[in-house]
Amino acid sequence: MVSRRADDAFMALLRTYHSQRFCRVAVRGARGGGGILRPAHFSTSSFARHQAVPDLSPDAAPNLTKETRVPKDVAVIGGGITGLTTAHYLAKLLPETSNITVFEAADRLGGWIDTQEVEVDVKGQKNIVRFERGPRTLRGMGKDTWRFDDFVLFDLLRDLGMHSEYLGIKSPPRYIFYPDHLVNMHPKNVFSEAAFKGVIPGFLTLFWRRAKARREPVPSDMSVADFIRFATGRPELTDNLASAMIHGIWGGDADRLSMRSFMPGPWWRFFLKGERDDWVTVPRNEESVLETLAQDKELQGYARAAHKDQLVFFENGLSSLPNALERGLRQKKNVTFKLGEPVTNLGYDRKTAQISLSTKNSEFPTKFDKVISTTTSNTLAAVSNNALPSLADSPNVSIMAG
Predict the structure, then answer these.
(1) What average pLDDT does the segment 281-299 reach?
(2) C-alpha dihedral over 318, 83, 77, 348, to 10 degrees?
(3) Is the pLDDT of residue 27 over 50?
(4) What is the number of other CB atoms lying within 10 angstroms of the CB of residue 175?
(5) Which of 201, 211, 271, 320 is the most exposed place for a label (fewest CB within 10 A)?
(6) What's the pLDDT tens digit per position in 176-194?
(7) In terms of pLDDT, which residue wins out, 289 or 89?
């Protein structure tokens, strides 16, 4: 019988991540200030004392204390954009004595991101045409204050010298097909399109139900569809609008997707009232970004310039980012790539506190102090000998849109 200790630890980690742990950030945007992008206006409930802004430049020395146990050998499973970004920051923050190995099942890096260039001949003139075989854009956070991923992206671009290639635009028009034609999801169509039936009364009901819900205990969770019905009292909003949008974005079912997991911002802001009008609630796990990257004046400038960008791409195609990450990592003596070597088995040695890792091509397992997986939960469950059965029950969807 498999021990439940590791699986219980995994579930505890998930509960911690999605638990009610927040900090408050002062914002002044409505009054003409710079909002959270200005250090003078930044505060959280967890600050016990003022902390100096750390040096985040690419040449800065790693900030490691004597108590920190530095791993000697680290493995990253997956060579997609997540795995490459992980390896980049490991190489940036760990000393050169730490060895980093990236395992990728395919014979190329970049994962789903795949820009291909094809030479075409038009009336005797040769040109290069780029095709995005995977995603065409990255999703920018825009004005959202729930997550601050953009600061990580800007930090990456600075490290890689790619800011001149950055291109960002506002989100283009979105459409759904209802009932027999395309409907532009613009507020101007609220009164003219049947797809928006119930939006106005539902919006008014939301304010009343939100005020009532904030006086009661926060529910443990509910599906996206149940939340919309609960908040607006209009089930047709799910049937006509939300289900189509959610299926297009996540490829999932609105009646099965967790509102708390997939839309944590709207969830918590519905049930929790801000302590002050000029404060916003952000997750505690974003605090480290706010304390470090968001305090960097150069990154603040990038964020201000791009705060309206919701779709991000690059001048020479989206593969520019993973390609630049790969080039930078290959220049590191302590980084090794193992392409065409899918990981087949992971095991934990309690005596040495190390993880043994086997691949399709390895004769014997290799020991690592740390292993970071960037693959799907189902893939990780398959190679971990059922040590984390909850992973096998975590569904995932891959979407390829034509």
Answers:
(1) 86
(2) -160
(3) no
(4) 14
(5) 211
(6) 999 999 999 999 999 999 9
(7) 89
Are the beta carbons of 192 and 178 closer than 8 angstroms? no
**Contact between 380 and 374 (Cβ < 8 Å):** no
Distance of CA 245 to the CA centre of its chain: 19
Distance CA 291, CA 286 (A): 9
Own/partner contacts of 374-381, CB < 8 Å, gap of 24 or more, are 374/76, 374/77, 374/78, 374/80, 374/82, 374/83, 374/86, 375/77, 375/78, 380/77, 380/346
Distance separating alpha carbons of residues 250 and 42, to the nearest angstrom: 33
> Which uninterrupted H or E stretch holds 17?
helix 5-17
Q: Alpha-carbon torsion 309, 314, 317, 321, what sign?
A: negative
To the question of pTM greater than 0.85 for the whole model, the response is no
Largest CA distance in the chain: 72
Is there a contact between 367 and 354 (Cβ–Cβ < 8 Å)? yes
Tell me which residue of 148, 89, 369, 384 sits closest to 280, measured CA to CA. Answer: 148
Instruction: Tell me the DSSP string of 206-233.
Output: HHHHHHHHTTSPPPS--BHHHHHHHHHS
Q: List, in order of start, the domains of the chain with CATH numbers.
A: 70-121+320-401 (3.50.50.60), 145-158+172-306 (no CATH)
